[in-house]
Amino acid sequence: MIMLKQFFWRTAMPRPAADLDLLSADAKTLSSLLQQGDLTSTSLVDMYLDMIEKHDGYLHAMLSIVPCLKLQAVAQKLDKGRKEGKLRGRLHGILIIMKLIQAGLIIIGKANLSEWAYFRSSTMPSGWSGLGGQCQSAYVRGGLDPDDTKDGSSTGSAVAVSAGYAPLSIGTETDGSLVSPASRAALYTIKPSIGVVSQDGIIPVSHTMDSAGPMAKIPHDLVALLDIIRYDTQDVLIQAEEQNLSLEEYKTYLDHLRKVVREGLDQIFNNYHVDIIIGSSDSSIKSLASGSEYPVGSVLLGYLDYNGRPFVLAVLAARNQEATIIKFMSA
What we know:
By secondary structure, the chain is of the alpha+beta class. Helix content is 37%, strand content 16%.
């Protein structure tokens, strides 16, 4: 990836008293330090840009980065607002890969992704794009494992957080593109029920299956970000969905898919009093979530001995039961 010099030119900025490990620092911890005055958003911008400059020459997690002077101007404005008691939300002054200026978040840049939502070629590895090149895991020893890059158009969003570029990111999923990359990056994520998050600005594979979702290092941050991006009401999207289903053949197939998948899942949830269904993140649970419009998330278990890759569970719940998944993540 080519980075212009002015993206990384910075004036001298104060650093926090205690050194931060950005690989493990979560948004909750950073927010606390910001509120206590031990850290500023301006210095945080510098620290994250240092991480990107240091590592993204080989990780290729970013497609583009907001120029440093613009980032500093935004951060200084948010620092000023904090001193004046004018907080925009609980993530005020925190950096994110993509989106959400209104909530006081600082957009540091745009993440790399699998081109054409991973539909450009059946043999293309996840995380490759013509602009960004091949995204690499921050965990796997020896770099890219070509046999272990499946299911992940949101690869850059996951790698960027795991590599310490920002504590939060946004990705999208049709079938596995949030859960799989997050599982490879030891992150928490959740694909919400379809309609919970707006599809505005998303180029979807399917309007009836695609959703944006957050990626974070702890469930608390996941909830905080999901609260920001979710709709207060689903009425607008439900109405739009019904209007779009005008082709009779397509409607027949879609209704059949929903009926079959939901009947099977609802029987498990209702008849056996099950709250969640758990399996490997490499399993078909993600496809069940896609076919039913039900939410699915990821939970870290540990790391594989042979190459250091994270091993993660996929967690499926009934429609609009995102809170149940978050509760399991926090247990």
